[in-house]
Amino acid sequence: MLFLALGHLVLGFAPENPNFADHIAPILHRHCVTCHRPGEVAPFPLITFEDARKRAKFISQVVQHGSMPPWKAEPGYNRFHDERVLTPGEKATLKTWAETGAPAGDLAKSPKPPSFEQGWRLGKPDLVLEMPAEFLVPVSGKDVYRCFVLPTGLKEDRTVAAIEFQPGNPRVVHHALVFLDRSGQARALDQKDPEAGYGTFGGPGFLPSGGLGGWAPGNMPRKLPEGMGRMLAKGSDVVLQLHYHPSGKEEKDKSRVGVYFTPQPARDIVGMVPLLTRDIRIPAGEKRYQRHVEFTTPEALRVVAVTPHMHLLGREMKVRAITSQGKEIPLIWVRDWNFNWQDTYMCREEVAVPAGSKLVMDAWYDNSGDNPLNPSSPPKLVTWGEQTTNEMCLCFISIASRDPESMRKVRTAALRQMVSPAMLLQILSGR
Questions:
Q1: How far apart (Å, rounded) are the C-alpha atoms in residues 282 and 172?
Q2: Domain final position from 261, 278, 296
Q3: Which residues contact 239 (CB under 8 A, 6 or more apart)?
Q4: Is the pTM of this model over 0.85?
Q5: 194-225 pLDDT per residue, tens
Q6: Rounded to whole angstroms, how far apart are CA atoms 206 and 184?
Q7: What element of type H or E holds 409?
Q8: Which of 261, 289, 311 is the last residue of a domain?
Q9: Labelling 227: which of 21, 151, 157, 287 has CA 20 to 30 A away?
Q10: How far is 255 from 128, CA to CA, in rounded Å?
Q11: Domain identity same for 35 and 103
């Protein structure tokens, strides 16, 4: 019976008289309780019938709106691991259940909620990097963005198959991004700030030499395919950028990152190619300001992940490749950008982009008073920058290559077009 009900939901059909035990609990278990359980970042649990019953209408509303589950990549425009997407049948079932009074059904037959492993999901890490001190999260106020410098102490280059982030306090840790720094700039920023870590918004305050991925509630750690790895150069610092959301009481956090090295040096190195522009001047009141970025890759690419990034005025970003014959290759499309739900999207299968193709990024911004996330009231002119009131236009494209020279050519070609000569020299010299 349960198998038949699940089949209908996947195919897009909804039962006429859904109840919690037979129809709603399986949906919540698959898509919601990872975050909506005690001790996690969501504001309330959705474990029991009573948890769900009293919020039935609200659940239906946020699901129909698309704000929950939090997944911003447009379905069908590329395919990604760990997609948090409800089927049409699941959405319809939640709506009907709420409209018919949220019946319980036979609660004795409700499936058990999923169990969650304690400790490291990928097993014992090869290297554990922990924040040097606890950070005190304020009781209330605006969300806090903080970077923490974690020296690796590596004496030789290594390749990384995966990272696993463990929030020290899941009640307040909203998401994490993991950058690499070989320049020492992050350490200098840390030394200038008297508190643990240093304050930041948007980027980490410096141009990273690389990155190891990110984490958001509901994300599962995932190793790169066998033979692939991200380069972690000797002497590098890991820079952990955390987004904290105040919980209403004083909280402390001391998060950590587990690093898993490849058993052997990776044959295919995964590196990041940035699509970006600093040419941003968004007039006050402009509702649909657009930036367009493109470059022609001199080498064939194997895309394995994408990481889009804008600030609070961002509304939409579309990234694709266009071959010399005019064929469009989807990479990612975020129609409803929200700074609070950033992610690194891992492709289910690597995307082949032929040499001579254009990588194209279009981004749109809303600097009007109608944008509830606009940090300025009334709206003001907004330009590129690191601060809350600034904006960015950036997407990191993670590519795999067995040829370091090919990787260097692609990265250099992108940077020559998109950054100043002085910054290009700084990037290529590793400073």
A1: 32
A2: 261
A3: 147, 148, 149, 150, 178, 179, 180, 181, 186, 204, 208
A4: no
A5: 999 999 876 788 878 888 988 876 667 889 98
A6: 10
A7: helix 404-418
A8: 261
A9: 151
A10: 11
A11: yes
